[in-house]
Every structure is written in C-alpha cells, then in structure tokens.
Protein 1
Amino acid sequence: MNWITNYVRPKINSLFSRREIPENLWTKCPECGQMLFHRELAENLNVCTACDHHMAISPRQRFTALFDGGVFTEVKVPEPLADPLHFRDQKRYPERMKAAQKATGEKEAMLVAEGEIGRTPIVAAAQDFSFMGGSMGMYVGNAVIAAAERAVKLKRPLILFSAAGGARMQEGILSLMQMPRTTVAVEMLREAGLPYIVVLTHPTTGGVTASYAMLGDVQIAEPNALICFAGPRVIEQTIREKLPEGFQRAEYLLDHGMLDRVTHRRKLREELIVIVRLLTGKSPAVLADLPPPKPVAEARAPVPAEGGDAPA
Amino acid sequence: MNYLDFEKPLAEIEGKAEELRALARQNEGMNVEAEAAALDRKAGDLLRQLYKGLTPWQKCQVARHPDRPHCRDYIEALFTEWTPLAGDRNFADDHAVMGGLARFEDRPVVVIGHEKGHDTKSRIERNFGMARPEGYRKAIRLMDLADRFGLPVITLIDTPGAYPGKGAEERGQAEAIARSTQKCLQIGVPIVSVVIGEGGSGGAVAFATANRIAMLEHSIYSVISPEGCASILWKDAEKMREAAEALRLTAQDLEKLGVIDRIVPEPVGGAQRGREATVKAVGGAIKAMLKELSGMDRKALIAERRKKFLGMGQKGLAA
Ligand SMILES: [Zn+2]
C-alpha cells in the first residue's frame, strides 16, 4: 500500500493557512503586548522577539522549519467514519468540522510527514491546536498509528509534536478509545527498537497527555507550555485554593521529574538531530556542512489574505 | 433506600404502603394487608416501567447510586483467599484502588478495581473512587506480578475519573495513566474488565484496556462526565441531560459501537435493588469471558488485545 500521496515542496501559498495571515502586518504578543512585525515573528518561528513567548505554530510551518530545505512528504492518514455518534450540541459536529477546516485550511488536527533533518531520515507528526483545539478523535488516532506504521516500515525514528485541549468530545467514547489505540502505536515503535521522541507544546492536556504524549523515549517541552491531565481551572475548583506560580508549566514539570528537557523552539531542530543520531548510533551530525533550512523569512513574505491557492 | 429524583412517584407509593403497615402494627385488629399489597403491586409496575425506559441521564444517576454494590462487595462475594497487596513502591498506597491476589472459581487471579466507599468515612478514605498516580502505579505493579506468574487479571471499573488535585498532577497523573494503559497492552495474561458503575474517562481506560469488556446494564462509560461536557459545549453544567444523550455513554450504545463485548443484565429497579443477583451475574460474566480466552497463549492474547483496540471505530450508530 502506498501511503505517500503527494510530494510536497512547499510553495509560498501552501505554507500559510488563512489563520496565519494577519489582517495587517502586525501581531500583538499575548504575553507582553509587544507589537511584532509579522515577517519578523515568522522568521523567529512564532516566538515573540521581545519576551520569548512561544505562540502556536501550524504543523506545516513547523515542518517547513524542521525538515532539511523545508522539504517533506505527507504521509496519508486513513479516513475514519465521519460523525459516528451523530453528535449535536448547540451545533452539529459536521458543521463544527467544516468551520475548522475552513479556518485552518487543514483536513484535521494532525499532520504526518516524512523527510530528513540534518540528513537524518525521520517520520514526524504534529498536532494542530487551531483545529478544534487539537482535540484527539479518531482521525488523530489514525494519524498517530499511520505515523508509527510508516516509521516501522522505513525503520526511522518518530518525532511527535503534541498540542491539544484533550479529547474530541463529539466522538464520545470513540475519542476515549484513542488512548489505547495510540498506545498500541507506541508499542509498535518500541518493539521495532525505534526512538520515539515527544515534543510537548502549549497546551498539551487531558487524554493526549495521558497517552502517546507521555510515552516518549525522550520527553522535551517548549518553554512555558501548559502540560497536564486535569486543567488548572478544574483543580482550583476541586481543591479550592490558588495554585502556585508556573504550576503545570514545562519548567515546573521539569523540576518535578516529568520531562527530560525544556528547549527553546529555535534550538529544537538541532537538538532533535543530535538526540536522534545518538539514539540510532549514527555519526555526529556535521551541522555546518548541511544545506541550511530555507531561510524562513524568504518563504514567509506576507501574502495577501485572499491570495492565490491558499487551501480553503 | 435512597431514591433518585425520577423515582419520586415510586417513593410516594412505597412510602404509603410502609405507612399503612406501620399503622397496622400499632393498632391491633386493623387489617391493611389487601390495601398495602395493592400498593406493592402498583409500585412494582411503576418500577418496571421506570427502568424499562431509562434515559441516558437517568442511567448516569443509577450508575452513581450509593446503594449499588461496589468493588469491595464483588471481591468479598466472588473471590476466596482475597489478599490485598498495597503500595506503588514509590510514594504511597492509594485507597481509591483495591488490588491484590485472590482465587476465582479455583483459579488464582489478580483483582484490581476502583472502590468508592459506602459511607462518609469510607468515601473520604477512598477519595470517592478517584485514583491518584499511586493507584495506577500500584495497578501497574500488580499487572507485572500477574504477568510473571501467569495469573489472569480481573478489573472492576467504577470511578468518576482521575483525581484533579495538585499533588496528583505534580506526581505525574497523566504519565501514570498512560503507563497503566500501556501495561494493559503488554502483559501476556488474559485481562477481563467489568464496568460496574461509572467508567470515567482516562481513569477507567487505564484499567479497562482489556481482552474482554463487559458493562452492567445501567452502568456508563464516557470520555467526560455529562456535567463536564455540558459546561464546555453548552457553557451550562445544567444541560447534563442533553450532554448525556449526545455522548452515547450507555452500555447499549457502547455495545452497538463495538467498544464493549457484553452487557450484564441488572435486576428490575437496578443493581441497588438486587445487590446479590447483580454480583452473581457479574461473576457469571467474568467466568464466561475468562473461558473465551482460555487456551490462548501469551502472544495470542497480546495480539488479540491490540487488534481489538486498533479495530475500534469501524462501526457508527444509525442516524
Ligand atoms: Zn512577548
């Protein structure tokens, strides 16, 4: 079975889903309030240049910065049943899905790709927080499984970037069943002796944290990312006391022994290359010798909001 | 008897019958039996009526009924030589999770289950059946023990969910749940689970990633509580009836979705009105499920369990 459907050399337009194109050329940092020139922010991988706050980054944008030369190939994810419960709250689930697809330009909340980082072949999966809060339903489960199967087939490490508000409630019990399903995927990698590296990004919560996002051989988090099972609001309501500063943030988890590392997004690529090469017994990466990843700024020149063939 | 809100008409009839009989006891020569018996019949009919068409929200209430048999009751009635084993060897012993060695129908087994407690004191001691990381880590240890000595694992699920507390988070609640689920997938002995009350989210999955899963007729199993779902999606926790409906959390819907293997019938009026019969029926289901798995070797058990979960989600519900 051929999992690869298309070979993507990202074009300028496809790098952007609509939500990433600000109305104007400025973005306000939600942390420090600094007005950031869009191009400058993109160049810095959506990290505030004033306060280092790590803003959300789309899977496509992340992969473009991660893979050598920004080149990656998407791995096909088997399509699950749509709306298996005929779920309806104030809106129908299919309507919510359509709205999320339109807003993000993506099909679902996880993107899987294969390619090379520092000339080291890997498979990568990234969760998209802007797609219904990155919530884990059957598609995300299928994506994690497809990523693991592809990694096993190619004998490559899997690097997974998590970001989720939790389970996709609209899929009810079937979203809960993604916890054991994705854990089967982790088991496949384990048995094949392949490294599984998790990068936890802001926020990673609920059933996602309590399954594949906490089962990595190496656990790295981006600075200040909220990582938890129960969210701080629920805990405050339960114990009726104020939680300490920085509770459930990456640095707090590192202090409590729940993570291996907290790494700035700009340093992440290099660190992942080193870890993957160490774990797979490869020679040290000659980073200086490599074709640098395409300067992000160049690829990220602002484009008109309605421009070109941006996926809808 | 604790009555649920929808049982109020029943409480009135049963109360009236009781009143009549009390009156007769005080006044010699007064004969009320015919009248009281008529009320009994009326109550019986109403009970059957009520429990035939329970709504999903009513099932949530029944599943949480304080008079239902709990983990401890099943262990006492169905197993011999019960030998509780304590602690996670790291931090503490979690009293929300019962675990230990026992014999089931002449066969040594490991039993793991959530225990909610039956009165104020024991409820607090059991933390209302909400495990902390130590509970999952104790379960992991016991599953390893079962694996090493070839003992089947029987898990009894009855939890509102994992405990949302400060210490629980600091000590890695999420990691503990993930590792427990992973352990379920790794061990080469049969695991059979029965949801006896509430199957609350990750706290339930951590013990219920099994070869066979049964649910009591009026138990529930859900990704989130109806109240929690209502407050997020409806922005109003009072919409729990609607949320319970939408979540499809009943045993009947879960069987249709292929998530569980069998439903264990409850007596008329629910497990709380027929505790012994319920416990016995659960025992029968455990026996039957273990029998289905007998003769399977380590590899086959692990492979079957994986296949079961990978295959979930192929079946949806009819519109
Ligand atoms: Zn800032």
Note: Residues 5-53 of chain B form one domain.
Protein 2
Amino acid sequence: MPQLNPTPEERALLSGSGGPGAALAMRIVSRMAEVTGAERLLPAASAHIDGCLDHGPAGLEFVERLVEGGARVAVPTTLNVGSLDLLHPGLYRGDRATAARARRLMDAYVELGCRPTWTCAPYQLPEARPRLGEHVAWAESNAIVFANSVLGARTDRYGDFIDISAAITARVPDAGLHRDENRRAETVFRLEGVPSRLLDRDVIYPVLGHLIGREARSAVAALVGLPGPVSEDRLKALGAAAASSGGLGLVHVVGVTPEAPTLDAALGGRPPVRELAVTPARLAAARDELNTAPDGPVGAVSVGTPHFSVAEFERLVPLVREHPPHVPFYVSTARAVLSQVDATGWLAELEAAGVRLVVDTCTYVTPILGPVEGPVMTDSAKWAYYAPGNLGVEVVFGSLEECVVSAARGRVWRDPHLWDGA
Amino acid sequence: MPGSGAGAALVLDEPLSFWGGVDPGMGRVIDRRHPQHGERLAGRVLVMPSGRGSSSSSSVLAESVRAGTAPAAILLARADPIVALGAVVAAELYGAAPPVAVLPAEDLARIVTGHRVAVEAAEGAAVVRLGRDTLSPP
C-alpha cells in the first residue's frame, strides 16, 4: 500500500506549528490521503465548503474545535448553503434550539475566514470560478460535477470536514478526480432518436442527468449526441441530477465540456466499459420516476435547486407576470444573485406577485415550506429526488412553465406538446 | 478505518446516501426509493456496494456515531472516501467509530441479511468473519 510521504511543511503542521486547529485539519487531510491511496498532497487553489449546513451537534463540535484551535483558511473559500435564510429569518419553521445551533455553525465558518456566500452554485459568482486544470477542494455534489465537468477544474468528491480541512491546509490528496487516469469516461451515453426540438427544452436536462446518474452510478460518464453550445443552467441541472441519483463527480458532454472535444478525448484512448443508448422511451421513463404522486392538486411549488441564476429569473419573471401563483411558490437563490435581481426591479415584481424568495439555504434541506396541502411541484430532479425523504412530501416534476401555470391553477398543468417525440 | 464491530448483517441491494437516506436520530433508512427503506442500521453490519450521492454523508455518519445509532461496521465493494471520512472524524471527536472495510464483491455476496458478521480492522488491513469463515480483504 502506498504511503503518504509528508513534506517538511506538512510535518510541521501535523506537529502543531500552525496551532491545534491546523494540526487537526492536517490529520484529516493525511488520513484521507491514506484512504484514497495518495502518495502526496497537491496545492489547492480554492475551496467550497458544504459543512456549514446543520446535520446535528457533531458538525458543530468539529468546527468549534477548529475555531478554538486558532485555524484560518489559507485559500479563497466560499460557503455552501446553511440551514437558515439569514436575510429572511421569519421563513424558518423549525425549533429554536436547532436554529441557534445552525446559526452558530454558519458563524463559526465565517470566523475561520470563509466568505459568507451561502450558495450551492458558487460557479455563478464570477470571482469564485476556478480555471481549467486548477486543483481545488470543492464540496457539494452539484458544485463538484460543475467544477470538474463544465469548468475543467479538478476536485474530488469532497464532503463535510475534508472541505474545510483542505481550505485550512491548502492541500488535497493526489487521488481521485485530481488525476488524469481517473477522469476518463467509463460509461458512455449516446442520444439516439431524440428529436432536436426536445433537446432544446430545459426540462430534458434534469431528466438526462437523472438517467445518467442512475445508470453510471459512481463511474465517470460521457454523453454523446448533444448539439452545442449548451447553457450553463442546463449543464447545472444535468449535473445536479446525475450527482443525486448517482455518486459521480464528472460528466463529459462531448463537444461541449472542455476535456471532451471528442469522445476519444473523453475516453482517454480506452474503450468504454459500458455503452447505453438514450432513447426517447428511456427519457420518458426517467422523467416518470421523478414523480411520487399522480397529476392532480398542487400544494406548493419550489424551484431553484441548485440556486436560480439571473438568466433563470429572466425566464421566470414573464411567466409569473402572466400566471401569478395561487399556491406558495418558492425560489431558492444566492444572496449575490438576489441583489442583481433586485437591481433590475424583478424582485419587487416577483414579491408583489406573491413569490417567496429564499436565500442562503434551500427549501429541501431545512423547514421552510409550511404545511402543504398536496404534492409539491418542482423543475429540479435533485429536489424531486431528495425532498420526499427529507420533508415527507409527495413530489411532481415538470418544466418551469408547467410549475408556474400549475401554481396559478392549484392543479398540475401539463404542456401537451412539451414531450412530443418522446 | 481501524476499529472493531460485530452484529447482524444488513445487505443493501443498492448504494445508499447517508445524507437524505438515513435519519441519524432513528438510525433508519429514510430514502423512499431505496429497496431497504425503513430498515434499521443501528448496531448492524451494513453491507453495500458503495455510498452514493451527497457529500454531506460524512456528517450524517459522524452524527449517527454521536447519537449512538451508527452501524456496528460498514463493508463496501468499492472504497468510498465520503463514508471513510465520516468514520475518521467520529474517531477524532468521540474516540470510536465503526470500522469501514472494502471486500471483493464475491466475498460480500456470501453475506446475507441476518448473518452474524464480525469486523476487525487495523491500519491497511481488515479481518471479516462470517460465522466461522474468514473473508479476506483484497
């Protein structure tokens, strides 16, 4: 078994030269290097932290130990969503003790020097986007897929604890998706017979992602046959869905993403381990898996998982203008995006129409939705995947337009031509 | 991950994400799409192909250890750093954690839910006992 051979600087951190907090962080990074078989650590250029979402006392005990131990992040570090909307605290419906712990957790990460960005879509912040080939320590499954696939940066599938440990030590194990040989596609998905007008619908991308994740599981995937260019919002929806139904961290979209100019490049010269045809029938079946309830009354709508972009607001505003919601309609986004939306005047218009804006957190990770009469509709495959377990709600999946019109009618509305050809 | 643990096996048909898939308060599978939805994890030897999905799973595993609802041991067909990390941090914070070991798929396939399994993991090696048989790590 390969052994990690620490540099003198890493040894010094382990023995406490940077204080007990940095030593704990270095122990965590070193242990993970051993688990992943890394022989050395690589410098990390930035970090994105998922640990600021409350999962109970253990997460807070860990970060308090870092704070008390005098640790500080050594690289630019963004924060994922917390459990609270700090700008709209009244939205939180959980108990006060949990809220207090969640607040302390968020504050503690800021004390470590992280930026209070509170978004699962750090790639929507221009200054936080890593460069092609840059090694970073990003957590949050959708952010990981986006960084690897769309930006061509290199991050392994980091999670809580290792994310902040990497930020404090500015190091990541030389393993997993940091290495060329692990970035080659193994499972190839080939679009077959899917009409191009269907590929020009936003709704197809989360469904494609759901199918890719379910079939590829943890293997690096390649998707062939998608005409470029593909918008970042569509790639965001695809990646988030794939990282929910599967455990993968990289999806090459051939002809679209930077490491996949050709299928051969995505495969790294090896034959695929598995090939799968993506037919209209398979897509329709994957779409149907995202519903836990039949079409009928709708109790609420939630969009913005991952966080809504400015471009998505641009599409939402005219839809809501035409079809103002009659059931609670939630949009989750980043506070940085919210301030841009505010500057355009859209925010005032959405709020006047009754749309509830959620920032710093997301509706499927924390109690924000009130008692809901009937299923919740969403355009996010990730939300559809996790909300039934997390919130105990039934879910109906549809396009953004279907969500808006359904919220106006209080019943699921289907665009009769949306899936023509499928 | 070093440590030892023993209990009745729970063999999962699909990979499981601890986050969104397990309630650390109850120690049960809450992912409604999972074939083993509703099963109790606490005190059992969890056998699964790999972890899945969210990177928050490390926290949920560490929280399960704190709450006393963690599996007695975790056996995987493929190394899963997210699962291993939850155990590493639980060991830092609470001084103990379920051992996590990787076994060849053909050895894992011999384990059936309800079998008594004992896991003793040391640095870089694990001994897994199924009844009187010893299953070797890769």
Note: The interface with chain A takes residues 1, 15, 17, 19-21, 24, 30-33, 50-60, 62-63, 65-67, 78-82, 84-86, 88-90, 92-93, 124 of chain B (CB under 8 Å).
Protein 3
Amino acid sequence: MDDINLMEISKLEKSFGGLNAVQDFNFHIAENELVGLIGPNGAGKTTVFNLITGVYKPDNGCIMFRDENLVGMAPHTICTKGIARTFQNIRLFNDLSVLDNVKIAAHKNVPYSLMGAVFRTPGYFRGESEIEAEALHYLEIFNLRNKKDELARNLPYGEQRRIEIVRALATRPLLLILDEPAAGMNPQETQALMELIRYIRKEFNLTILLIEHDMSLVMGVCERLYVLDYGQIIAEGTPAEIRADKRVIEAYLGEDVG
Amino acid sequence: MQKVNNKWLKLGIEVVVLAALFTLVQYLITAGLLKQYYQISLASMCINVTLAVSLSLINGFTGQLSLGHAGFMAVGAYIAAIMTNMLDLPFITGILAAMLGAGLAGFIIGVPTLRLKGDYLAIATLAFGEIIRVTLQNIGYVNGPAGIMGIPKFATWPWLFGGAIVTIVVIVNLINSSYGRAIISIREDETASELMGINTTKYKVLAFVVGAGFAGLAGALYAHYFYIIKPETFNFLKSFDILVMVVLGGLGSTTGAIIAAVFVTALTAALQSFPAIRMVLYALILIIVMIYRPQGLMGNKELSLRTFGRIWGGRH
Ligand SMILES: Nc1ncnc2c1ncn2[C@@H]1O[C@H](COP(=O)(O)OP(=O)(O)OP(=O)(O)O)[C@@H](O)[C@H]1O
Ligand SMILES: [Mg+2]
C-alpha cells in the first residue's frame, strides 16, 4: 500500500530546549483516508501539525507528500502543495468579515493579475465574482452563508471553528488537517460536525488528519488512529484495536473508553 | 431610503464631485480669486494626502510600522529636482524617476527587514530616514545642507490634484482586490495568512514598495511646488507628521487618512505663526484621540455614500 500513500513521515524529531516534543515519529496516510492523532495534553500532537505545515522546522526526519519532501519549505509553499489546516486556538482574521476570511484563502489561485486589479480590467471583475461565488458555495455547505457579512470576531465559538474549516477548504487542499475541531462544542454541535467532516471528505475527495480530544468523535469518524504520548507513537490501528490496547488505556484513555 | 450600492452610480457621483472640486479650484486660481495662502494650503493638502494614503498602505493595511516615510519623499524630491533642474528633462520624467527611485529604495530596505517578523522595519526605516538626510547634507552636487534652489514651478494644481487622485485610486483598487485582502490578512494574523498560502514576505515588500513609490511622487510634487528642497525638510519630524495623520485617520482606512491629512494641513496652516501652539495642540489631539478613540477617526471603516445613508435614513 506504500505507493498510494499521500503523505509519509519518517523519523521526525523536534525538541524545544531540553524537551523532546516529538521523537521517532513515523506515520503514513493514504489518499482519501481519515486518520486521527490522539494523545494526552502535551503529547506533541500540535507540534506534529506545526512540523507538517512548516511552522516549525524539524531537527530531523522527512515528510514526503506526493513524492516531495516538505522539510525546509515555507508554510505558504506547503499550502500551495495541497495541505491546509485549522488551529487549536482559533486564528481567524478577526476584524474582517466571514466572507473575506474565506476569500483570502482563495488568493493562492487568484485568477487576475495585480495590474488587472489596479486598472480594474474586465478580468478583475470576472475574477472577483468567481472568488465570491466559490466562497459563498463553501459557506453554504457549512450553513454559514447568512453570516457572511459579520465580523469573524463577533460569531459564537462553534461557528468560528466551522469558519476555520471553511477557510481551510477554500485553499482547495488535498490533505486537510484539523486541530481539535470539536473543542468547545456541545454534543449536538459535535455530532453535526462529524457528519460534516464525512460529507466534505466525500464531496471534495479529501484526505483528512485530525487531532481530537472528544473520544466519541474520534472513534466514530476515524478509520485509523495514532496514539502519541511524550512525543512518541505508542499505538496505531483501527478504533477497535486502540480501544483494546493496554498501553493506550494506561497512558490516556482510562475509564473514558466507551 | 433606497440602498446605494450600484457601483456605476457610485463611481459616477465620485467622478462628478471630484471634477467639480477640481474645476472650481482651477477657476479660482486662474481668475486670481484665491489668495496665495489658500493656494499653498491646497497644494500642501494634496501632497499630504498622497503621503498619508501611501503610508496608510504600509502602516494601516499591512500592519508594518514604517517611521521613515519622509526619507522616501526626500529620495523622490531630489531625483525629480535633479532631472528637471539639472538635466532639463520634462516634469513627467522627473516624477516617474522619483517614484521608481523611491520604490527601489523601499525594496532595498524592505527585502532584508520584512522577511523577519517584529519591529525590524521600524528600526530600519528610522535609520534610513536619518541616513538619507545626512547623506544629502554631504553631497556637493545637490548643495549639501543648503539644498537645491530655483526648481521650476511645474507642480500646478492639475499635477497636484492629479497626483493625489492617482495615489488614492491605485491604492484603493489594490486594497479592494484579492491582493489587498492578502495584504490585510498579514496585519490580522501573519502566521494564519502564511498558512493559507499567502507569501507574506512578498506582499509585505509589495505594499512597502508601492507606499514608498508614492511617497516619492509626493516628494517630486513638493519640490516642484515649493521650488526649494533642503535635507532638513525631510527630517524625522516630517515622517512623524505623516504618521500622525495615518493614526488620526484610523489604521486601515483610506478615507480616514485623507480626512486627517486635510485636517492636519489646515490646522498647520492656520497656526503657521504659532509653531509652539501647533505642537501643543498636536500632542493634545493625539492624547484625546488615544483616550477616546484609539482606533482613530474612522477605525478601519471607509466613509462611503452608505455611511451617509445610514446616518440620514437611520437604517442599515
Ligand atoms: N514553541 C514551543 N516552544 C517550547 N515548547 C513548546 C513549543 N511548542 C510546544 N512546546 C512543548 O511541546 C510539548 C508538546 O506540545 P503540543 O502543543 O504539541 O502538545 P499537544 O499534544 O498538542 O497538547 P494539547 O492536547 O494540550 O494541545 C509541550 O510540552 C509543549 O509545552
Ligand atoms: Mg495541541
């Protein structure tokens, strides 16, 4: 199955001062797969995401994405290769409208030139309406179209989380990575989010990697899980296998396992 | 009240208003009805609007603190003056060379400093402004501290007004495009912007170079209106003046920058004989704005027909 892997990470390492945040991290995700990364607080999950997206430079290791090593690339280049993400602590463009937040993500495919913008060519007007139509389409899917003119900062937490996903989708990624997308959501919202994640995966033919603390979400939606503890992978397998794994139960799940 | 959002109607009204303003002033000048004092004020307003709008692109929209706008103005002023005064080239050549030269200076400062996050640009531009001034004081070809005198007075009302309008149109069109959104997203959250596929370094440099280029235009206009330029004209206080206009107007508002530039110029002109009072008033206004309206006059909102519609009709 190696040849259909969308991303393959080997021997990834990152330390902060004396702290080994991630060590000997080996990982693969196939096209169209939905994989979860779980682990206790401080296990290094977000650090892995930051390494994949180029926010941090790994001390060691290799991140192969469609036959290219991402290590050393700038974050915006990695995004143009087809990886988009959301953030554990929401990072929307707060003083801008919801619509503008989504439009910004479409900039990497901007259909007109800078001169076209300055001289207001027909191409500019055409391009702008294309961008707007696409952004509205994404907002529609997430039931946020009626919020398009609101400032991002004024929306409730759950909606901000969803806008982050919309914004990531608007970059037209192949791999979407979500850092605790259900954090702070109530059970109904979480349930709806699960449906939505399944839906967009099918609709946009996406590969999805997600970090989640909410066990019901992880177990319900992921096909395969990696468990991280103290920067190292301690288990890998299907939700059922993970549920039964002794080390995982010790390290993390405890009585939570449903 | 009917919603005014037809873009052609809006554009039509803007063009008519601006043309009327332009023609009125032009008529008053040619008919000799406008006193010298008012003419100078109007010229300064156009130049200051150009400066404030171009700086607001850098400080207001991109969120990068530049403290050396007068330095780019100086580059433009000297290049243009050399072109027309010493090389006898036409004014338009001088203007274009001024913009290119100031833009190039912006590029040279911007590339190394804007690659880094943080306030490196503030330090670099502050130093740049001083270095330009000191360098000019020591170049014999441009008469050192005495400066260049007797520059032809090419910057007539159409040039001044046109310069300000071109600056506004270019920067507003830039801002209201995908490129502008990319630039604004840097101010909002540089990391998120980068992760959404935006080459933040490239766009920071772009905004900075465009802003510097238009400061060069303002310099060219200044030199050919006041027909004398000295290195001391473009000192840190001048940079600070422009910054005050941008902050007063509201970071991220072009209309705010325009209104503040006009207001500050009028105030300066009115208090010409009392420079001390001017500085005190300046400080006072700044303090009051910082306390009661820290986002500036307009915040990041633009003044538009709809704003009037809202005030007038009392509905959104
Ligand atoms: N920039 C940084 N500088 C120093 N230490 C860091 C940095 N980023 C992360 N760490 C440390 O690395 C370890 C892993 O952090 P990380 O955020 O990846 O954990 P996590 O698994 O995402 O945890 P959580 O579930 O709480 O989000 C933690 O001990 C954290 O303090
Ligand atoms: Mg985390």
Note: The longest helix of chain B spans residues 200-226.
